[in-house]
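Tutorial, part two.
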Amino acid sequence: MFHATLKGACAPRRARLMLMAGALFAILSALDPRRAHAQAAPSAAAQSAAAQSAFASDRLSIEVVGQGPDVILIPGLVSSREVWRETADRLKATHRVHLVQLAGFAGEPWTHGDGAFVEPAVEELARYIRETGLQRPAVIGHSMGALSGLMLAQRHPALVGRLLSVDSLPFYSALFGPTATPESARPFAEQAMAGILSADDATLRAQQTASAAGLSKTPGMQAQMVGWSMASDRHAFAAALRDVMTTDARPGLAAMTTPVTALYAADAKGGAPAAMADALWTREYAALPNARLVRVDGSRHFIMADQPERFTELVDAFLAD
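Running the prediction step on this input gives:
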């Protein structure tokens, strides 16, 4: 009986000692520099997010949404990143989406006058991928954005996992004929540049309205295109068009190792006839090893607007490869 009573009397003290020991262990563990370092070290995702927030460029800005494998979306000539909004809203459930906005387009400021547009933007994209620690992201580009993606993959192959080119040729001026070269296209490019810079607002709006009708069958997209064009800096618009018309990425195709899928549009009612589109895209991408060419019928240049369901299927298949 006495032993039992003594044991019972000591139990509260023993419990207090155990609690004190536990508390002391917790304090010492917290003071352990190795443990403190482990607690303080940010995750790779946190480091990447911090780098994205810190990234600054006078050539482009990037909005990041979602979580998962990285996908970079690049818009085309004078387009807003909003051209990708529907795609980004869908992909953000499974991917981390990087929406690029090019400086000078759709109301974004521009500080480079008539200087080079495309090449500096490509190098800034490369810097963004490196500084934010992205691991070979997928790149999807439309028109000039696809040309930029192609140049990025050629110059920095270790930075790009795969490329989806949306209605873009490696040399835009091949539209003038199979013998076109950057040199033969330059006078036309300079003329187009001068026309953009000299046109009054009413004239430019009329030109862009007519152009939009040929680039998309969708009235809403046509209206957006005109609005983005009119909100773009004229010098940025003109410089970008000049660069697109005189940039030939075909010489770098043969050495490319980045997988490329090239979508192209065909439309029997007002767009490119299928046979003509097939011949042009086959010829211009002939040097690219294992190029995957996919024709999208019933569409003009803005495939994502004219054939949204088919475009969604193709994007999903591209990302699933």
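The chain has two domains: 2-40, 44-320. In part three we will examine how such features are distributed along the chain.
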